[in-house]
Amino acid sequence: MFSSPWSMAKGMQANAAAHAAELLASADIGFRRADAAVPVVSYTTHSVGRNALGMGSACPFETDELVVAAAAPVFTQAECCAVVDEARSLIAEGARSRFTMTDTNRDVAVEDMPKTLAWLNNGAFARLTSLAAACYPGVVDDATDLWVYRALVINYDHSAQLTHQPIHRDHSLISCVVPLSERREYSGGGTFIEPLGRAIALEQGCALLHPSAVRHAGHRITAGERWVLVLFLNTLAREVTEESDHEIWYDLGTRAHELGVPEEALWNYERAEALNPRDSLLLTNMGVALAELGQPRRAFVAYRRALAIDPYNVNARLSAGELLLKARRLRGLEVLLAEAPVESLAADVGLQRLRAKLAPGDPHCIASNEMRIRD
Ligand SMILES: O=C(O)CCC(=O)C(=O)O
Ligand SMILES: [Fe+2]
Hints:
This protein folds into two domains: 14-238, Jelly Rolls; 242-357, Tetratricopeptide repeat domain (Serine Threonine Protein Phosphatase 5, Tetratricopeptide repeat). The protein has helices at 5-28, 77-92, 114-135, 237-241, 243-258, 262-275, 280-292, 296-309, 314-326, 330-338, 342-347, 349-357, and strands at residues 43-47, 65-70, 106-109, 146-157, 165-168, 174-179, 186-188, 191-193, 198-200, 208-211, 216-218, 221-235. It contains twelve helices and twelve strands. Strand 8 (191-193) and strand 9 form a beta hairpin. The chain is α+β, with helices and mostly antiparallel strands. Fe (ii) ion (FE2) binds at residues 168, 170, 175, 216. One of its GO terms (molecular function) is oxidoreductase activity, acting on paired donors, with incorporation or reduction of molecular oxygen.
């Protein structure tokens, strides 16, 4: 049955909303995107055919060389052991992720592993995202675009009959599996890739990347213990180019703002910002909402960011100036006004009024409450 265009549009909006919320949730639970790309290790690829993904015309992958195996370790032995040590002690204390529902292995969420999380955020993640950007150029524009939807450390333990993971697809764009155990610590194992009809078992620290939509499994181990780090990755690129998704949140934000509900406005603005952090007007509105919510410092930062993107943004300059005036930071106000492009200062009475307050002996040092919302 075909859906009507109306319900299709609604569905797309709901998707965009869910996607933006997941991106925020990723940052909330502690994952950071890579700061910059780093050099990548050599790798080999395996062809699986895009039709195996079941993504139809929405498939963003442009070649069939979609399963990628690093030919050298991305993580050192010491790094792998440190991750296993942290996971092992947490699992011994009873920690379990709430993410997978299978009882054929044990796992712990990386967000519950402070040392591993910090290690990933401080450069280890960039090694994986740089590899992904090199392997999937049509999908990942830049190593800094990838974000972690979820990450787990998984333990397969033959003596406890925790030997495998059934065939499945993951709920992300690209999945990344890094064996943390040495190859000699277990028999069998590896990641079974259904369209290849076989499992790929890499050496310790070597990453295996594949589209999350490829059907795959944690292949059965027949002896020993196998630990892996699994990351489910999505990319920003789609959101940033989908200007309409950003506009949806922006419009919902301004509507709430005009109705006098700044908390809700800010909630929506933050979602718009997650999709496009370089919208000067949006940042100004965020500043206004923050100021209304009694957070002048954060408001000031938002105005400053808005001005860094667009120095001609008069509302941002005026609102920032009013905050400075209220806090009696007249030197700061002077700098702010001195930085204004001459034309914008000449054309705006509000800015001129602010400048007049800097005049020596001016008794009026009380800011106006006027803050402008752009619709
Ligand atoms: O153990 C593996 O190699 C695969 C793990 C996996 O597919 C998953 O955790 O989603
Ligand atoms: Fe998986």
